[in-house]
Write a structure and sequence with these properties.
mainly alpha, 169 residues
Amino acid sequence: MAGNTVVGFYWRQVMQQAISSEAYCYLAVCVPIVVLGAPIGSVIGSHFHRQVLASLVYISDTVALISAYAIVPVTKILIGLSVGIIAFGFLFFGLMAYAGQRIMEGLEEQKEKLLQDQIRFREESDSTDLHHKHEMPSYCKVDIETLTMLQVGCRGEEKVQKLDTLWET
């Protein structure tokens, strides 16, 4: 926000020479709120779940948009630009969310395939008793504890942690 304010003030003052002294007074009024609000927001943000914080941001942005329409004189150009920006935002971020979901599904499939390859290799080496004669492919190397855990099975967070360890190796 501070960066946007600096750029906006610079643009309006230097490029357009259109900042009144009243705008500087509004800026001066906002400074103490920002100086106190930023640390308090950081403390609050560390205690709430991210979805609660996202909901608060959605609510405050919606209130800000509606109140801006109530305060600023509305023209057809302003309405068109506002609707266009909102529609573009929904489209752009919707596509980004879809792409991110596809990427995550691909990673999950790769993890599952790697896990199956490692289990199959372990079972083949145990059944043929040729573990020392065949070199395990580099993408299948994993510690014995993880393989044992995968064969025996486990529950909850431990499984997720072990699978992440398996993926990293």
